[in-house]
């Protein structure tokens, strides 16, 4: 019985620990590849920025964590709003998609109240040929053209067609400018 | 919550002095404690089962929680034991509670040990079977996150292809037949990890391997120049930014450089290719470079290929959701595209051997590009061979001109008795504690005998074969203990062509072979007679003898690498049933 307890208690902690030693070199190597790609993307976004979007690694120098801003496109309920997002890149980026969240509270059919986004290219439609810029551009167009067929916010999906004025009100109610950290 | 009712408890203990099983009174509905009078009033006199149904009455809504419990066989047993006793005694006080198993166990412990009762493990087993909502949520989350455990490296070592034969030894006869002759054509194969990239990875690896084999530095440098020129194609036609594809392409060029530098030492060069492809990031990058090449080539040659695109998103949708997506398997169009853009210009030919269940005695092969099909093999360039099995590609290597170091006589392993015969016509039953032999007979490897023999083998009426078998002491006797391992290889027992009636567990001491020879000779499909071997109708040993049935040699054993869970077939019960409970246990004692 005692050995059972031992394994149960130590397993969660010891597994990563035992993996860390031999795997350290590999994961560093993996990070290098992802980092190289992210440096290229950063360079690209700085040299030829797309209108209305911007992204930059977060202040702590970790290239795997970015902050991004989308300006709400004209002719959408989000016009004039600055929407902030966080990007977290996996170590095997670009083979798996980044985790993208709205950090600004946003009322949108495909975004839930935690900021999680339902967008196919961030999930099963991701390809390594996509990048931060294409993701931001997709999100920008999602603001004006929500996919109301698979909403995360059902009320918003309903109001989008039924009562644009109320929708706009709810957007403005929910919106809150947040401090850059 | 459960509130002990001292009076009720008292009644129960006193009246249950005649050993009312402890399994019973653990269920409590607090709001509507069901006294016996209640039960009578509601007409739920059917014992425990009745309680689950009409007896619960007002608590029916909550009783839904218990539906899994009442439907389990174990609880059915409980009902059988308990029901009549309680209803006749008229003192069965039932406390039902819907809260949790812990309360139930608290109740158990509250019953004084002096009560003379049987222990009740089934009760706790039943309680544990009920998943809490948290369990379900955790289970769902686990299922969502589930990633199959992929075994082995991305690209494996060259392996004798007889491994494939063994892998399919218990499969469909078409597979058996095709894999049995496979090693005659292809001596080796190289397993590729089945992560969804295997086709792309296999071709990419084969491309570099062929370059190494060619030993032509000039060719490799020419290839590098050609692929460099294709970069602009990826950019202009494919529509991918330089900063996106550059990382992928770079790894291809680096490997080409390394291979070119090692061209004088093919072995070292192959080790380099092997190591590179087994580095997940670099291997993926090279593979993804080739994906981009294929998708760009499709976009640039829509006249030729667009008609073959079967995707709702058209060419672009197909590119972004099939060709360019990591871990999405190559399809035939992708194969054609990659051959046309990568292999054809350098004169390489792709030959795919399809190992599937299509009729035929060997794998169907298919050359790409199509022009190669009409030309004599000697006029073709180097060939990259792929073995396709449904949803998976591996590299295979044809037999080299020099003699193969390991001739493998696969047939030796294929001599056995017929499990079908064992089930259908052996009148001796299998012990019922273990594996249902009837169901085992339904496993893919144990399907019926070939048409010619079927009537004989499936005939359950007395036949010449059964003449010797009814006796429990005859050849079908079971040793109650596993036989010593030296008897394990059934091969040695019957390497010679003998009638099927020798079961492989026939230890000489137990069953003399003499009676067998007195019977009319009846050749089975499992004999090693030339006509059967040539017809390929023999089978793999099934390890379904009583000796091996519970061993890991049996595919129904979870330790077996080819583990095949038993399949429940209600019809199988029909002819299995009479075997149960007859003389087998007695025979083995």
Describe the structure.
The complex is a heterodimer of chains A (181) and B (589). Chain A has helices at 2-47, 132-144, 154-162, 164-174; strands at 53-57, 65-71, 82-88, 99-102. Chain A has one domain (23-174): Ubiquitin Conjugating Enzyme, CATH 3.10.110.10. Chain A contains four helices and four strands. Chain B has three domains: 6-136, no CATH class; 159-398, Peptidase C65 Otubain, subdomain 2 (3 helical TM bundles of succinate and fumarate reductases, Up-down Bundle); 409-589, no CATH class. Helix content of chain B is 44%, strand content 5%. Chain B has 27 helices and six strands. In chain B, strands 1-2-6-5-3-4 form a six-stranded mixed sheet. The interface between A and B is medium-sized, with 18 and 21 residues.
Give descriptors for this structure:
heterodimer; A: 181 residues; alpha+beta; Ubiquitin Conjugating Enzyme; 4-stranded antiparallel sheet; 13% strand; disordered N terminus; B: 589 residues; mainly alpha; 3 helical TM bundles of succinate and fumarate reductases; 3 domains; 6-stranded mixed sheet; 27 helices; 6 strands; globular; thiol protease (chain B); OTU_dom (chain B); ubiquitin binding (chain B)
Reconstruct the topology from this structure.
The complex is a heterodimer of chains A (181) and B (589).
Chain A: H1 2-47, E1 53-57, E2 65-71, E3 82-88, E4 99-102, H2 132-144, H3 154-162, H4 164-174
Antiparallel strand pairs in A: 1-2, 2-3, 3-4
Chain B: H1 6-15, H2 36-42, H3 47-52, H4 60-63, H5 67-71, H6 73-89, H7 101-110, H8 121-129, H9 133-145, E1 159-160, H10 162-167, H11 173-185, E2 186-190, H12 198-214, H13 217-236, H14 242-261, H15 266-277, H16 280-300, H17 302-305, H18 314-323, H19 332-343, E3 349-354, E4 364-368, E5 383-389, E6 392-398, H20 419-424, H21 437-440, H22 454-458, H23 490-493, H24 514-517, H25 530-535, H26 570-576, H27 584-588
Parallel strand pairs in B: 3-5
Antiparallel strand pairs in B: 1-2, 2-6, 3-4, 5-6
Helix pairs in contact in B: 12-15, 13-14, 13-16, 14-15, 14-16, 16-18, 16-19
């Amino acid at each position: 019985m005692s050995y059972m307890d031992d394994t149960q208690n130590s397993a969660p902690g010891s597994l990563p620990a035992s993996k860390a030693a031999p795997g350290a070199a590999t994961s560093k190597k993996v990070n290098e590849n992802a980092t190289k790609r992210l440096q290229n993307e950063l360079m690209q976004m700085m040299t030829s920025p797309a209108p209305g979007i911007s992204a930059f690694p977060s202040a702590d120098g970790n290239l795997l964590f970015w902050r991004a801003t989308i300006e709400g496109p004209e002719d959408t309920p989000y016009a004039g709003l600055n929407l902030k997002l966080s990007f977290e890149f996996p170590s095997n980026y670009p083979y798996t998609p980044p985790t993208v969240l709205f950090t600004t509270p946003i009322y949108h059919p495909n975004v839930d109240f935690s900021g999680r986004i339902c967008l196919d290219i961030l999930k099963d439609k991701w390809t390594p040929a996509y990048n931060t810029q294409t993701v931001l551009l997709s999100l920008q167009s999602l603001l004006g053209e929500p996919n109301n067929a698979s909403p995360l916010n059902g009320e918003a999906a309903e109001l989008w067609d039924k009562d644009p004025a109320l929708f706009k009100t709810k957007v403005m109610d929910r919106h809150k400018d947040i401090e850059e950290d | 919550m459960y509130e002990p009712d001292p009076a009720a408890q008292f009644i129960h203990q006193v009246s249950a002095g005649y050993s009312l099983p402890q399994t019973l009174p653990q269920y409590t509905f607090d709001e509507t404690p069901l006294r016996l009078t209640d039960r009578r009033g509601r007409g739920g006199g059917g014992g425990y089962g009745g309680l689950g149904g009409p007896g619960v009455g007002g608590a029916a809504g909550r009783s839904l929680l218990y539906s899994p419990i009442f439907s389990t066989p174990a609880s059915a047993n409980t009902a059988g034991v308990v029901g009549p006793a309680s209803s006749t005694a008229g003192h069965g006080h039932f406390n039902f509670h819907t809260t949790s198993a812990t309360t139930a166990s608290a109740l158990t412990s509250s019953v004084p040990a002096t009560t003379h009762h049987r222990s009740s493990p089934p009760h706790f087993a039943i309680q544990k079977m009920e998943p809490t909502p948290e369990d379900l949520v955790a289970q769902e989350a686990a299922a969502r996150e589930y990633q199959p455990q992929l075994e082995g490296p991305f690209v494996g070592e060259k392996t004798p292809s007889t491994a494939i034969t063994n892998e399919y030894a218990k499969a469909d006869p078409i597979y058996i037949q095709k894999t049995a002759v496979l090693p005659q054509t292809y001596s080796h194969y190289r397993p590729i990890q089945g992560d969804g990239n295997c086709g792309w990875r296999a071709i990419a690896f084969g491309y570099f391997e062929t370059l190494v084999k060619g030993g032509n530095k000039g060719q490799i440098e020419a290839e590098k120049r050609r692929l460099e020129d294709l970069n602009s194609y990826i950019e202009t036609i494919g529509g991918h930014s330089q900063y996106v594809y550059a990382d992928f392409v770079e790894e291809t060029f680096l490997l080409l450089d390394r291979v070119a530098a090692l061209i004088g030492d093919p072995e070292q060069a192959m080790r380099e290719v092997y190591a590179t492809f087994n580095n997940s990031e670099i291997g993926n990058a090279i593979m993804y470079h080739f994906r981009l090449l294929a998708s760009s080539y499709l976009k640039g040659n829509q006249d030729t290929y667009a008609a073959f695109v079967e995707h709702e998103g058209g060419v672009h949708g197909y590119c972004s959701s099939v060709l360019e997506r990591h871990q999405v398997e190559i399809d035939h169009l992708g194969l054609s595209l990659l051959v046309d853009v990568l292999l054809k210009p350098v004169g390489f030919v792709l030959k795919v051997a399809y190992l599937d269940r299509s009729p035929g005695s060997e794998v169907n092969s298919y050359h790409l590009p199509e022009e190669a099909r009409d030309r004599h093999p000697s006029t073709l360039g180097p060939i990259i061979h792929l073995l396709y099995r449904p949803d998976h590609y591996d590299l295979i290597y044809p037999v080299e001109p020099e003699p193969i170091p390991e001739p493998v006589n696969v047939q030796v392993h294929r001599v056995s008795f017929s499990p079908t015969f064992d089930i259908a016509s052996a009148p001796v039953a299998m012990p019922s504690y273990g594996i249902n032999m009837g169901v085992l007979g339904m496993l893919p490897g144990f399907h019926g005998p070939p048409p010619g023999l079927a009537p004989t083998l499936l005939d359950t009426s007395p036949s010449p074969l059964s003449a010797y078998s009814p006796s429990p002491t005859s050849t079908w006797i079971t040793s109650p203990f596993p036989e010593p391992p030296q008897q394990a290889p059934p091969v040695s027992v019957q390497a010679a062509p003998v009638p099927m009636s020798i079961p492989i567990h026939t230890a000489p001491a137990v069953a003399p072979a003499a009676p067998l020879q007195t019977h009319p000779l009846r050749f089975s499909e499992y004999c090693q007679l030339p006509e059967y071997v040539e017809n390929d109708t023999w089978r793999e040993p099934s390890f379904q003898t009583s000796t091996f049935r519970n061993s890991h040699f049996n595919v129904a054993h979870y330790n077996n690498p080819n583990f095949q869970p038993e399949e429940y077939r209600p019809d199988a019960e029909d002819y299995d049933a009479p075997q149960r409970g007859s003389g087998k246990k007695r025979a083995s004692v």
